[in-house]
Recover the amino acids of this structure.
């Protein structure tokens, strides 16, 4: 029986939003699913060279983010708050044995997950192919659709 | 047929599943794996993984926080 197929569009590049596509992709690969991740817009930050462990998270505009104490929105916008929130989230993840984005990315590559970077958004943002990690392919909407039309699961994150 | 013990305590989703899968792929049909993890989601996830991949979940035992799944490779 042919493997099931899944595609994920990864459109966000904050630390918290880089996790879901990579967790689902590596788990699916472990369950014999053929996976393709299409990185577009801010999702490109995940596959930029030496960038996976530099992604950040901000409490600004996210009232659901748990904080050690209630923090007014205006304070969230102050310099240093983003670094603080990022450090806090990373230490929480580490404490719970959660993989880093770089580790998940390495696992994804080892599992043969196809990584496609959106050429159009790369052009718009001024990224060169050489700015991206090894093993990434380059393509546009049609490249994703060609795979997605045949896939069992397609997710936009 | 061989029996292997795997210990993935201290790791969170998806690592226990991803690592179980990559270890079991190296084995031969009929090999037995005793996989221990303390991620509370592991009990349900390893059953789902076995169901999808066709490997047989021979049993699940819990000791305190530890969950040990016994899996026979298909």
């Amino acid at each position: 029986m042919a493997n099931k197929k899944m595609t994920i569009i990864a459109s966000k590049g904050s630390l918290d939003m880089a996790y879901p596509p990579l967790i689902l992709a590596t788990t699916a690969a472990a369950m014999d699913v053929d996976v393709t991740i299409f990185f577009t817009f801010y999702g490109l930050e995940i596959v930029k060279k030496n960038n996976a462990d530099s992604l950040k998270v901000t409490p600004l505009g996210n009232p659901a983010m748990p904080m050690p104490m209630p923090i007014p929105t205006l304070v969230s916008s102050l310099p240093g708050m983003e670094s603080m929130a990022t450090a806090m989230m990373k230490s929480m993840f580490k404490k719970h044995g959660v993989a880093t984005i770089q580790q998940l990315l390495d696992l994804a590559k080892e599992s043969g997950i196809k990584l496609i970077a959106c050429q159009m958004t790369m052009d718009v943002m001024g990224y060169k192919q050489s700015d991206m990690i090894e093993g990434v392919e380059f393509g546009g909407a049609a490249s994703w659709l060609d795979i997605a039309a045949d896939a069992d699961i397609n997710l936009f994150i | 047929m061989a029996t292997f013990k795997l210990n993935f305590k201290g790791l969170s989703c998806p690592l226990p599943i991803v690592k179980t899968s990559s270890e079991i792929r190296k084995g031969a049909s009929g090999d037995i794996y005793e996989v221990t993890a303390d991620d509370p989601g592991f009990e349900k996830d390893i059953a789902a993984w076995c169901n999808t991949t066709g490997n047989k979940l021979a049993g699940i035992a819990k000791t305190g926080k530890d969950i040990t799944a016994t899996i026979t490779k298909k």
User: Anything to note?
Assistant: The CA atoms of residues 6 and 23 of chain B lie 9 Å apart.
